[in-house]
Amino acid sequence: MSYLGTLVILGLLILLHEAGHLAAAKLVGIPVAGFSVGFGPKVWSRRRGLTEYALRAFPLGGYVLPAVTDLEEFRAFALRKRLVYFLGGPLANLAAALPLFALLNASRYGVSFYTVLLAPFAQLASACWQILISLPSLFARPEALSG
Questions:
Q1: What pLDDT digit, counting tens, does each position of 53-110 carry?
Q2: Which member of 18, 52, 72, 73 is catalytic?
Q3: What are phi and psi of 18, to 5 degrees?
Q4: Cα 29 vs. chain centroid, distance in angstroms?
Q5: Catalytic residue check, 143
Q6: Please, are residues 90 and 24 in contact by the beta-carbon 8 Å criterion?
Q7: Where are the beta strands (DSSP E) in 51-112?
Q8: Helix, strand or coil for residue 132?
Q9: Three-state DSSP class for 76?
Q10: Where would I find the H helices in 1-78?
């Protein structure tokens, strides 16, 4: 795969992740001041209501900025609202994995009830389990963690 193709795929994954945070914030009533995909100088931006939507030059990151003045104002939102906001991005990525697994299975094994509807859930559960069992090894050496 080319570098450009890799950047496009990463950019789409980041867009999906940040869109999950945005949708979750709007769902629970957390006001959003900024939604941006990428970093660096703005290539495009548009304000709609309170939120400024922006595309930046390098699509290797992004953010959803709540419309709050400080951390204390953010903490004033109920814990359940903050949790929904924080989990919105990862859950969007997980939700996107299901149709991707279904497409992969259909192209490899043909279309069937199992390959398109049941197997993707099993594959997603297996991938999540592998991540969960590898987490303790990540924290075994905290000095190696960054970011």
A1: 999 988 788 999 999 999 999 999 999 999 999 999 999 999 999 999 999 999 999 9
A2: 18
A3: -65, -35
A4: 19
A5: no
A6: no
A7: 51-66
A8: helix
A9: coil
A10: 3-28, 71-75
